[in-house]
Write a structure and sequence with these properties.
heterotrimer, A alpha/beta (about 350), B mainly alpha (about 270), C mainly alpha (about 290), B: about 270 residues, MetI-like fold, 2 domains, globular, C: MetI-like fold, two-stranded antiparallel ribbon
Chain lengths: ~350, ~270, ~290
């Protein structure tokens, strides 16, 4: 009886793809950010099973991770990952387990949130931009400052994100996205105040709906939403602000308290395969940070304005960076702006 | 008189129609042929979202199962604790009953996010692993107030002489409770539990902060999908849930009506 | 004598589970929140420094935060008012309806709660969108020339709030009207009073407990509800719930968020206290 049981167990372990043998990874990120098809392919190819835990915002992710939540892969935004890195909550990646690392485009590596590139693997990148309906707008929009024009009273949709919008305002004044100069911040607050009558809606998650439905004439949108708008209605124009752009990278990390680091590395390496990265880019509609995957991405997708940042604009890019206690100042400016 | 009848019926129907308007929209849009991630406008009829639901392509049904499991356990436990508490406090005024009552009610009165952070902090400090256990504790804690207050109210409306009468007739305290008090407050327990059930099924904030990897409830899943676009499969699921509830209620009523008719014809 | 003693000790045991649970999970949690509200924020943004301070409460005195509180109170008051206006008659008519219909009506009122709150609000959004079915209908019948601005207005937020809280007025109203002694109403009519007079001098005062309960059950939650503003109001206004959320998650100022919450707790507790003093009883809030 016992030998039979033991034999059965051994057989079970030998079955290829058995989760028992290869382990599993728990992924923590936005629901639907990884395509289910890709996740399934990962399990089929490597035998590692995938558990998924979703979060709704970076801030919530930070709270869970700092409270000791245990996950194997976290996919989140740069500034949040930077905070985790500084608090020692991330694992330094073992490059020997990541042969596909060389596929990555160096332009996306070693950025301010992970200067040595030791902790993160970029997954998607983008830059928020101005999108508008040329039929409803007089003249052309070339920069963020144009949004203050009188013709836009009650016709703007802004992203409900303090850092992104105040950052854009700062840049239109010629200052840095992440300034901690109180004088500059006061100036930005005052400038924003005069924009208030033009703002009709603040929305972080689906501002493109208002543009497409005609409720607003101009919207400030994240990359995939801008692509989505042009996919739905090619007449809409997308503009990178001439004053300079903000930039963001969502990247994957392995938390320090993960118990499946080897399997997690397998996951990261898998995601860096050219054909997988190309599929991811087509799924997320963000910029693709994988150079080897570039030729595999459909031309129609690459043609969208949102996915083609001109070199001169790229040179002006700034990330949202951790500003320590000034974060509260930015948030207060934004709260004051919204309340008017 | 008849005018009034017409007016009151019309009013009821009108308000009910308004109450079900968004639900009707949800149901209709579940049949939307539009598969875009970015827009919702109606482009035609399709069963694609119901098909997706059947194969549970988005894991919504699994999340629903998780939510139901959690809600049922939470309600069961909080129903027992809350009912016992209400009965006990109705029997005798303790020195601290006012305080206990006040504190027990607080979870229903403060913003969920604060309660969530509070739970998170004490669980983390106590080293309790996040998961079904922490979820259960949190849900029971915010469900108790609803059941407690409904049963309390029901008890207050009861004739206090009844249990004493039972005792006078020789019943033990336990027997008096089960045979006299309990049946009388059962409707209260039932409705309180229904309310608590709805609160538990709908909870996102508290659940998110105290759950662990791999335990995802339906609200968590839905709220987390807002960034990439809430799939209309959620609409399909909601429509099906509603249809199921109505079906169950209808069947219940039919069975009861049948019983009453049978009873009557036997006399 | 003996009977009383036995009952008394029995009752003590019954309360123990609830007392333990309450003290352990509610008391400790709330105690932590209150403690947190008096702590100093760690400037690195990580947690708190255990140093006592009243700064968090003093910060609330800042006029812009006061405005947020006022906003929330205003919305709560309006929501309660509209809910009473619509919900009381509904509960009244429901209680006066044929007995066989009452159960069905009750179910019809409660069942929508069984859908996810977000899904219901999305339903309103889809309906009220600039290119949604409502505007489409009005345009096609020529009632309007251009799509109406329905979404992202204060009206839309109020609609969402009333929609979510209406049952909390309907049910206590129904409950109190049903329990009423109709003989008094009939007597009043027999003595020659008009329907209106009867209503205001007999019915209304007798169903006041239900009205009061409805007020409390609507007002208290609406101070904390904020996602209506984000989803239906375009986040054009900031309410107390938004503020607490922002302070907690984005500014990572836990002590300040805790202080705001303590203030909110005191506010709602005092409303309940006033309710009790006005003669409100638990049996009236028990809406079933």
């Amino acid at each position: 009886m016992k030998t039979l049981l033991a034999l059965t167990l051994m057989l079970a372990l030998l079955i290829p793809g058995a989760a028992l043998a290869e382990g599993s990874v728990t992924i923590f990120t936005w629901e639907g950010y990884f395509s289910d098809e890709i996740l399934k392919q990962f399990t089929d190819d490597t035998g590692v099973s995938v558990e998924f835990s979703p979060f709704a915002t970076n801030d919530e992710m930070l709270v869970k991770l700092r409270a000791g939540g245990r996950y194997d892969i976290v996919l989140a935004s740069d500034y949040a990952l930077s905070i985790l890195r500084k608090e020692g909550l991330l694992t330094a990646l073992d490059r020997t387990l990541l042969p596909n690392y060389e596929n990555l485009n160096p332009a996306y590596l070693n950025q301010v949130f992970d200067p040595d590139g030791a902790y993160t693997i970029p997954y998607a990148a983008g830059s928020p931009m101005i999108v508008y309906d040329p039929a409803k707008v007089e003249g052309e929009i070339t920069g963020f400052a144009d949004l203050w024009d009188g013709q836009f009273v009650d016709s703007l949709a802004l992203l409900n994100d303090a850092r992104v919008m105040i950052g854009a305002t700062l840049k239109s004044l010629g200052y840095s996205y992440n300034t901690t100069d109180q004088g500059q911040l006061d100036e930005a607050a005052a400038k924003l105040k005069s924009l208030r009558p033009n703002v009709r809606v603040f929305d972080y998650d689906a501002p493109q709906q208002y543009l497409l439905s005609g409720e607003v004439k101009v919207a400030y949108l994240f990359t995939p939403y801008a692509v989505g708008v042009q996919q739905t209605n090619p007449a809409f124009k997308c503009v990178f602000p001439e004053e300079g752009i903000g930039f963001g990278i969502d990247a994957m990390v392995i938390p320090a308290n993960s118990e499946n680091k080897e399997a997690a590395h397998k996951f990261l390496d898998f995601m860096m395969r050219p054909e997988i990265a190309a599929k991811s880019a087509a799924w997320t509609l963000y910029l693709n940070p994988n150079a080897a995957a570039d030729p595999l991405i459909p031309e129609e997708l690459k043609a969208y304005d949102a996915l083609n940042i001109p070199e001169d604009k790229l040179a002006t890019k700034e990330f949202v960076e951790d500003v320590g206690e000034f974060e509260a100042v930015y948030q207060d400016i934004w709260t004051g702006f919204q309340m008017q | 008189m008849k005018q009034r009848k017409v007016f009151s019926s019309a009013y009821l129907v009108l308000v009910l129609m308004l109450m079900y308007l968004p639900i009707a929209v949800v149901a209709v849009f579940s049949l939307n042929a539009n598969a875009s991630r970015f827009t919702y406008n109606f482009t035609g009829f399709s069963l694609q979202y119901y098909e997706g639901l059947l194969r549970d392509t988005k894991g919504l049904v699994a999340a629903l199962r998780q939510s139901l499991e959690l809600a049922i356990y939470s309600c069961a436990i909080s129903a027992v604790i809350g009912t016992l508490g209400a009965v006990g406090m109705a029997r005798r005024k303790f020195r601290f009953s006012g305080a206990i009552e006040g504190i027990a009610m607080l979870p229903a009165m403060i913003p969920e996010i604060i309660l969530a952070m509070g739970f998170l902090s004490i669980f983390a400090a106590a080293g309790v692993p996040f998961g079904m256990l922490t979820l259960l504790i949190a849900h029971v804690t915010f469900c108790i107030p609803y059941i407690f207050i409904v049963v309390r109210g029901r008890l207050a409306g009861l004739d206090p002489e009844l249990p004493s009468a039972a005792r006078d007739l020789g019943a033990s305290p336990v027997r008096a409770f089960f045979d006299v008090t309990l049946p009388l407050i059962l409707p209260g327990i039932f409705s309180g539990t229904l309310l608590a059930f709805a609160m538990s099924m709908d909870d996102f904030v508290i659940s998110f902060f105290v759950t662990g990897p791999g335990t995802t409830t339906l609200p968590i899943k839905i709220y987390s999908s807002v960034r990439m676009g809430v799939s209309l499969q959620v609409n399909a699921l909601s429509t099906m849930m509603l249809a199921t509830v109505f079906l169950v209620i209808a069947v219940f009523r039919l069975v009861r009506q049948n019983k009453t008719h049978k009873g009557r014809s036997q006399t | 004598m003996k009977k009383q003693k036995r009952e008394g000790s029995g009752a003590a045991w019954l309360v123990v589970p609830m007392a333990i649970w309450t003290i352990l999970f509610v008391g400790v949690t709330l105690g932590y929140i209150v403690w947190l509200s008096f702590m100093t924020r760690n400037p690195d943004g990580l947690g708190v420094i255990p140093r006592f301070t009243l700064d968090n409460y003093l910060k609330i005195l800042n006029p812009s935060y006061g405005k947020v509180l006022l906003n929330s109170l205003k919305l709560a008051a309006l929501t309660t008012g509209v809910c009473l206006l619509i919900g009381y008659p509904f509960g009244y008519f429901m209680a006066r309806a044929k007995k066989s219909w009452r159960g069905a009506l009750l179910m019809l009122v409660i069942v929508p709660f069984w859908t996810n709150a977000l899904v219901r609000v999305y339903g309103w959004r889809m309906l009220l969108m600039g290119d949604g079915p409502l505007n489409g209908l009005l345009l096609s019948i020529g009632a309007i020339r251009e799509p109406l601005k329905l979404l992202n207005t204060f009206g839309a937020v109020l609609l969402g709030m009333v929609y979510a809280l209406l049952p909390f007025v309907i049910l206590p109203a129904y409950s109190s009207v049903e329990k009423m002694d109709w003989a008094l109403v009939e007597a009043s009519r027999d003595m020659g009073a008009s329907p209106a007079r009867t209503f205001f001098s007999i019915t209304l005062p007798m169903t006041a407990p239900g009205l009061l309960a409805g007020c409390v059950l609507t007002f208290v939650p609406s101070i904390g509800l904020f996602f209506m503003s984000d989803l239906l109001g375009g986040a054009n206004e900031v309410f107390l719930g938004n503020l607490i959320n922002t302070q907690l998650l984005k500014s990572r100022d836990w002590p300040f968020a805790a202080a705001l919450s303590v203030v909110l707790m005191l506010l709602t507790s005092s409303i309940l206290w006033v309710y009790r003093r006005a003669g409100g009883k638990s049996s009236d809030i028990a809406v079933f």
